[in-house]
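On clarity, I found the account of how folds are encoded harder to follow than it need be. Since the whole study asks how a given chain folds, the encoding of that fold should be made plain. For illustration, here is how one protein appears when written out as sequence plus structure tokens:
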Amino acid sequence: MGLCKPKKFMENKELEVIMKRSILALIGTITTIVALSLLYTNMSRPLQKGHAKIYVSTRGSDTKDGTSSNNSVATLKRAHQLAAAYMKRSPIDVVVYVEPGTYYNQTVTWTTAHPKYYTKITTTNPKKQTVFDGRENRNASLGSQRSFFTFRFAGQHSNLIIENLTIRNYAEGITLSGNREDFEKGWNGSNKILNNTFDRIGSLYHEDPSKHAYAVLRLVNSRYNEIRGNKFTNIMNKNSPALLHSIYAANASSHNIIHANHFGPQKGDPVRIRDFSNFNDIAKNTFDRAAAYGYSEWYCEKKGNSACSKGVPECPSWGNVFKNNTLTKTGVWHLYVNAKFVKSKSACQRNPPKEADNKRLRTSQNISKK
């Protein structure tokens, strides 16, 4: 007699669990929609008619003011100085127009941005190649610059756009860098990396191959970005090739759109997610001969790895989506965590986001080809 009543109780409890999971899944969907809505609201408006223009050309000079093609500057460093002056004087959309040609041995750290205005770096003619080459000159065989472009900005939306460029012969490509220690206030976001070609990136193509490269496009606490239509080809370290990833999103780099990119050939997993980088949407990409897995996720636990340099323990990532991708001679996905630690024993000081519904990764409708 006493066993009949608990049966109904269990049925009610099961129904309650199902309802809770459904609600959490719905919250997750709504959260993603709201996040993407904020991104597109912030990034969909056209450039202002009165936007500032800065011209860069292979025949330019950094003694000029860059206000026209005939007064073009020669380097992105000089373009950054001019863009910073515009933003300081009176914030405005700024477009750096780079004329087709090959620009050798350039590197820049870019710190100018504004939460309400664009900073855009693009070519004047998408039908012709605009190349930034890390070699000292055309006769050099290997690159001399470690990184092409480092963006440092933290605390708000930054609205940087880089599009229609070719970047080659660097150890690493572009870094969008917030503050990795301050998840709440140290982020940047609403940037776009569109229709660029990254070719011959990694220590194999650098004059000092002993220094491993880790990322072609690195995100450090960088959120709500759109990474679309890029090509990553010939991505290779000379030693430890598995350490190099085309897109490396780490330290709370969440709600990023990674769509319609081409990856391969390369030896490292093309998309690596790390340390509480949640709700990234990885879809409609092509992975061609791209290592063992198209996607991998990892976090570094200092108590078991002396190489972990962050001050606090890193955390698993949650709610990421890998769907509608085409993989040729590439595994679908891989969730890699140090075997010594399971998530229940992780030193991570953060709880999983409630809207993640306890899912680290969702996969669907991926096509795998031999």
Notes: The first helix runs from residue 4 to 43. The first strand starts at residue 52 and ends at 56. The chain has one domain: 4-44+146-369.
